[in-house]
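## Example pair
The file below holds two records. Each record gives the amino-acid sequence first, followed by its structure token line.
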Amino acid sequence: MLKVPPQSLIDELLDSYRHHGGINHIDGVNLPSKLSIAQITHDLLRLLFPGFFDSKALHSQELETFSQKSLETLKSLLEQEILKSLKYQPRTSEEVDRLDSLASELTHEFLTHIPQIRACLEKDVEAAYDGDPAAQSYEEVIVAYPFIEAIAVQRMAHVLYNLKIALIPRIMTEWAHSRTGIDIHPGAKIGTHFFIDHGTGVVIGETCVIGNHVKIYHGVTLGAMSTSGGQKLHGQKRHPSIEDHVTIYPNATILGGNTVIGARSTIAGNVWLTHSVPPDSLVEFERQRLHIRSKRDRHNSNDFQI
């Protein structure tokens, strides 16, 4: 039988709420729902990739009905969450008087970007297929490569970010992060034909700018030089810029808002880079010696150049 919690515990918890109010959200506006945003994001993926995120086949004669119903449902659900976001954000008195209509306008504006996002994602899928000899088909790339889900969600969240919608873009990209292991901030500007191979552990910061035909591998960090300045750094360019046709190999770390990786450059694995490099650069560590010795016979060893 379920026992009633002791009054002493309830009193202690209430006391905690009073003394540690910075992590409460009491008597505030209703925030966007993480569960609702997750469902909306999944439904948006169904709209972006019709037939790939459904349990049954989708036929061409059903496309118009599918599109209409999907858009109607998404508009209704997303408009509710955007309205919550608008109520959360500081607003002018004029905007407060028309939050409902503003939420409707912003939702419509976002949905009009879906065809453009699809055109960009087709180029991302093409880049993944062309860039990975293990890929058997476009279908395999879309259904099996975690990168596609991560970049699709980021490209949608980026539109909302540019519309200055609070909370929702970040909820979307963190949902994708939890599913794919790829952490791309919605503020990052990413060009066409982008490909992250394998993907696990990739981090791309808010003010990062990435050109066209860029390929990166797992474990790459495109981050800030330092965050010790905290909120004083808000709005500043903190993350690197990667120009066109750059390849960045696994576990490379590139930091700093003034760092620019020139076009057609290659960054080798495990490189730590905090300054710019010109176009057509090859960035790698100088060769080191790898020492291999027997655990049983310490006098029997070999050195190799790597």
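Second record, same layout:
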Amino acid sequence: MPASKLSELEKEIGYSFKDRSILDEALRHSSYVNEQQGKNLPDNERLEFLGDAVINLVAGHLLVSHYPDFSEGHLSRMRAHLVNESQLSELARKIKLGNHIRLGKGETLALGNNKPSILADAFEALMAAIYLDGGYACAFEIISSSMLPIIMNDVRTADSLHDYKSRFQELIQSTQCPVPQYDVVGETGPDHDKTFVVKLVCKNLEAYGYGKSKKIAEQDAARKAYELFMRNESA
């Protein structure tokens, strides 16, 4: 690929390769390589494999940092949302990656440079190329800059969906119930792995919450109180 085209992509991603042959490999789709008889060119599938691991690692790092109270299961679901084909293909479109993928004639005619699967795979290969050329720190910086806006939007969504303390508070504002009281009534486990028990009291309603932090336990108690209140109202 002409150096000028590679420079365009480097400008889009904000990274200059020391070894552009790795970048060139990341942009070679198998359909292109299959048409280059006798050239013994590798396609981007091995880089795609590596890039999948690198992106998952960065996504996991970011999610653990931004969601310190979320469970492993919840974090896994959120990571799956971050690194799925649809999300990665959109990240590829933002850096105009489709303009640089080398495709075979058939895929070119089929507008393969706009197919989500091809874009997502090429994005993974590109992130692997950055990792191999510049190390994890460079890959982390570029991937995180792409993913942080998505994560921050999800943080706001998650806060609104999982803040049961606020939801329960709003629910009882129109009743004669007093402000709910939260008290830590127990702790179990060793110091490095405690589980807190919080008791919520609101008039005649009581609920107990459990969690690895006081905040999680309070949210758990508020969720149970919210659900109990709603069941009582509908009875």
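Notes on the second record: The two ends are 70 Å apart (CA to CA). The chain has a mean pLDDT of 88.
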